[in-house]
Specification:
Elements: H1 2-10, H2 31-36, E1 42-44, E2 52-54, E3 56-57, H3 60-71, H4 78-89, E4 96-99, H5 104-110, H6 114-126, E5 134-136, H7 148-155, E6 159-161, H8 164-167, E7 171-179, H9 183-194, E8 199-207
Parallel strand pairs: 2-8, 3-8, 4-7, 7-8
Antiparallel strand pairs: 1-2, 5-6
Helix pairs in contact: 4-6
Bound molecules: zinc ion (ZN).
Length: 215
């Protein structure tokens, strides 16, 4: 299955960000994009985590590529995105990787859970196990709510831990695709901490939203 994705990815060989045809020896994205992708040095404080890092900023060609990844039937982009997240983490002391799950309805509609694929590819690059730990309960769509207070109220209690024994006393790397206000990541981390996780580190593919906080 992965092999098929890779074939799709490289034939025809187009930059996954700007769509330019790649030259021989270029893989997945073009030198222009490699040198000009927006903002790579972000770490944002997110409650209940040791902070959240991201290799990219959610704007321009990055935003376009992520929208294609999520909604345009390009799950194979995860093969490229996962290692980008892993590279950002450096020496991470996490013992396992998990993700912020989408609802089962949404996964069914899309055919895949984009955060799960990112987590799997990130884990592979870090040589860590990737474990399903969270399940999403039904809630109205978070993206319909623009302000932070409404999102936080809506997200409270949104997740439950499916295998507490995998979580207890472990340092967990929690992956999502985008961090906007941090409310979703924070709630998922709180759920893991409540189940006994020793520590939760956050990482997403791209930071969105208002605050620039490089700490
Ligand atoms: Zn490009």
């Amino acid at each position: 299955m992965i092999r098929d994705w890779l074939l799709d990815l490289f034939f025809p060989p187009k930059c996954i960000f700007c769509g330019r045809l790649l030259r021989e020896g270029e893989r997945a994205y073009c030198p222009d994009c490699r040198d000009n992708l927006p903002e790579r040095d972000w770490k944002r404080p997110v409650r209940h985590t040791g902070g959240c890092v991201a290799p990219l900023r959610y704007e321009g060609v990055v935003r376009d590529a992520i929208l294609r990844y999520k909604f345009g039937g390009r799950p194979h982009y995860a093969v490229v995105f996962g290692p980008m997240i892993a590279a950002k983490l450096g020496d991470c002391s996490a013992e396992l990787v998990t993700w912020v799950p989408v609802s089962r309805g949404r996964k069914f509609g899309r055919g895949y859970d984009q955060a799960q694929l990112l987590a799997e590819e990130t884990a592979k690059a870090l040589h860590l196990p990737c474990v399903r730990t969270l399940q999403k309960r039904y809630r109205p769509k978070q993206s319909r709510m623009r302000d932070r207070a409404a999102r936080q109220a809506n997200i409270a209690g949104a997740f439950r831990v499916v295998n507490p024994e995998a979580v207890r006393d472990r340092h967990i790397l929690l992956i999502d695709d985008i961090c906007t206000t941090g409310a979703t990541l924070s709630e998922a981390a709180l759920t893991l901490r409540t189940a006994g996780a020793a520590e939760v580190s956050g990482a997403v593919l791209a930071m969105a939203g208002e605050t620039r906080n490089s700490r």
